[in-house]
Design a protein that fits this description.
The chain is an alpha+beta fold. It contains nine helices and ten strands.
Length: 319
């Protein structure tokens, strides 16, 4: 078969187009029609989900951190992102300006991949959505809307598609092969970075909670430290049921347990991001990506702290 004879069927990409379009339009549908997830004061606010991406995002972490530290700007971005997803998804389903909108889908999918590709408790959910969105968008860019589309209603549709096919088989033949392998390379690279899925030991940062303790200090009788949850399931928090303060000899100076942490004063919690660390019914709740400064009044000199999760996992830090 020669390159000049490769002409795709006019509806070859129909299933890909309508399913790919729905995956992006459905984000708009879920957030604004079925529920209002763009209300910062409502449960399930999409900005908090965006905050979950922060700890292990690839390349775009500074951008995410800037947005989650500026709630008003984040809300504007969430609205814009949702509306773009809705419009682009609908236009792809209808097959209007399909190739242009498929390019936008590639960039939307790339953002999902780099921001949240590390999240997924069982099936590497976000990573799969990201890489398949990029590959699907690029394939749709090559196939176009097909005959069964608004694009296909044009009187010059077949003529334009024949011109496009000739470009694919001549000028764009090698560049598109190269791009395809670059997408495959990005797939392997992110699979390895996020999950160790290509070689070595597999890892999943969405299974067990992990806290990062920093800036531990004592000023006279006030002990402060920053704590951030950087790993674990994104749909619920890590439940802190114990904080222990020790001296240089390893003796306990003070210990806060479940009851103490469930009634911990909000005045002693300084949250940095949209996702908030806050007391719950039986513990101190730390959502994924949340970071806060915690403050305690302790008279004796503190040398070390130990934090205990409800699962039994402990984290420690020395001054």
């Amino acid at each position: 078969m020669t390159k000049q004879s490769i002409i795709h069927h006019p509806n070859a990409g129909l299933a890909l187009r309508i399913v790919l379009g729905w995956t992006y339009f459905s984000a708009f549908w879920r957030r604004l029609i079925l529920e209002n997830k763009l209300d910062p004061d409502a449960a399930g606010y999409i900005g908090e989900k965006f905050n979950h991406f922060l700890p292990n995002a690839l390349f775009i972490k500074p951008l995410i951190e800037y947005l989650v530290t500026n709630p008003e700007l984040l809300l504007t971005k969430m609205w814009a992102f949702t509306i773009i997803e809705g419009i682009v998804g609908l236009l792809v389903i209808l097959g209007f300006k399909t190739r242009l909108n498929s390019l936008i889908i590639i960039f939307l999918a790339l953002g999902i991949l780099l921001g949240s590709g590390w999240i997924g408790t069982t099936c590497l959910d976000e990573w799969q959505i990201g890489v398949l969105g990029i590959a699907g968008g690029f394939t749709l860019f090559q196939l176009g809307g097909g005959r069964f589309s608004i694009d296909g209603l044009s009187k010059k549709f077949l003529e334009n598609e024949n011109i496009w096919d000739k470009k694919l088989n001549s000028k764009l033949y090698k560049p598109f092969i190269i791009i395809s392998f670059l997408i495959f390379g990005l797939t392997l690279y992110t699979n390895q970075v996020f999950h160790g899925g290509v070689y070595g030991t597999l890892h999943n940062k969405s299974i067990k909670p992990k806290l990062e303790i920093s800036d531990l200090k004592q000023d006279q009788h006030v002990v402060t430290f920053d704590v951030m949850r950087i790993e674990g399931v994104d749909v619920y928090g890590s439940f802190l049921i114990g904080i222990e303060f020790l001296d240089k000899e390893g003796k306990t100076i003070k210990k806060l347990e479940m009851k103490d942490l469930s009634s911990f004063s909000g005045d002693n919690i300084k949250n940095y991001y949209v996702s908030k660390i806050k007391p719950g019914k039986h513990s101190l709740i730390l959502p994924l990506g949340a970071k806060a400064e915690l403050k305690f009044e302790i008279e004796d000199p503190v040398h070390k702290i130990i934090l205990t999760d409800i699962s039994g996992i402990q984290w420690s830090k020395e001054i």
